[in-house]
Q: What sequence folds into this?
């Protein structure tokens, strides 16, 4: 069986065609692993947050003995990313993983084109909120990421368990990002259900403007007990905490960055929600390879998070971050 005929069988599987006859194993020439080419279409250059995804994808390729190519648009827009996916199709990739960042409908046509070429496509992004079992009509073979509404609820539950009774402000630096809004909405809903006042605060990506907005909010609402950053590094929130003299303000955030780890160590930040982004890069490659080689299809979405990083595990996480594994 050549890799191209293998792709055609995969396309038949995607289209729901039942193969009634299976050739004897001794007549099948399975492709060598190093013939398998996986393209990972990222959202950004392989640095910072996205560097962990790229590192995960690369290490999966090394462990499985397959070729992995990481490509990304110079500027993250739908047309630019679609162009990169088309490049992967033109390169005759055996499988494509996409860092999905917008509504699924934007990818429908290009995923259909890949499938028509016998190329399976998976999403290296969060599954639909609250869903764990894969929809058989999903355009993606799998989804690998964190349940963001569960992440928001987890933040609220941790704050409640810490005894927070005052007001909580939830700041969103990218209000147009559906992922971040899911985090914010779920946290606010869970807090209000527990009788705790919570406000949504629209911010920008500029740390200085974030700090000023949070500082002014704290001055207007002195009963604020906690502040959560849902869509950016924690710098602006930490600055506002220091400038306002509110050493008692509980700060929480998302994702693993050096500033958060240091702030958790010294107590300025209570915890951060980790989506284990290394796994978001590693698992798509693994799932594609096992589908290509063995026809395996995971029935549920692969959740990489949410998990909590606080003082109890920050040193272990920091060590793994230094090695490029978080």
A:
């Amino acid at each position: 069986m050549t890799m191209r005929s293998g792709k055609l069988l995969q396309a038949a599987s995607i289209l729901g065609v039942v193969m009634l006859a299976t050739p004897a194993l001794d007549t099948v020439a399975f492709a060598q692993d190093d013939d398998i080419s996986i393209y990972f279409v990222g959202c950004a250059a392989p640095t910072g947050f996205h560097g962990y995804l790229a590192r995960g994808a690369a290490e999966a390729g090394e462990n499985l003995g397959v070729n992995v190519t990481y490509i990304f648009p110079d500027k993250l827009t739908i047309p630019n990313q679609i162009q990169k996916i088309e490049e992967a199709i033109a390169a005759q990739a055996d499988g494509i993983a996409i860092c999905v960042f917008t509504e699924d409908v934007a990818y429908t046509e290009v995923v259909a084109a890949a499938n028509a070429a016998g190329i399976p496509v998976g999403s290296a992004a969060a599954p639909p909120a609250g869903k764990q079992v894969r929809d058989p009509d999903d355009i993606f073979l799998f989804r690998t990421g964190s349940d963001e509404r569960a992440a928001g609820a987890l933040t609220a539950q941790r704050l409640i368990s810490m005894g927070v009774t005052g007001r909580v402000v939830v700041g969103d630096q990218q209000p147009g990002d559906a992922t971040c809004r899911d985090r914010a909405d779920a946290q606010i809903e869970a807090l209000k259900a527990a009788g705790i006042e919570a406000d949504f605060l629209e911010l920008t990506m500029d740390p200085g403007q974030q700090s000023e907005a949070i500082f002014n909010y704290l001055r207007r609402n002195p009963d604020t007990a906690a502040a959560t950053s849902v869509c950016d590094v924690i710098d602006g929130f930490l600055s506002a905490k220091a400038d306002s003299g509110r050493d008692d303000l509980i700060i929480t955030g998302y994702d693993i960055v050096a500033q958060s780890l240091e702030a958790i160590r010294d107590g300025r930040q209570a915890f951060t929600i980790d989506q284990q982004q290394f796994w978001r890069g590693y698992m798509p490659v693994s799932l594609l390879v096992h589908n290509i080689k063995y026809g395996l299809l995971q029935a549920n979405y692969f959740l990489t998070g949410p998990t909590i990083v606080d003082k109890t595990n920050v040193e272990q996480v920091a060590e793994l971050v230094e090695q490029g594994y978080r």
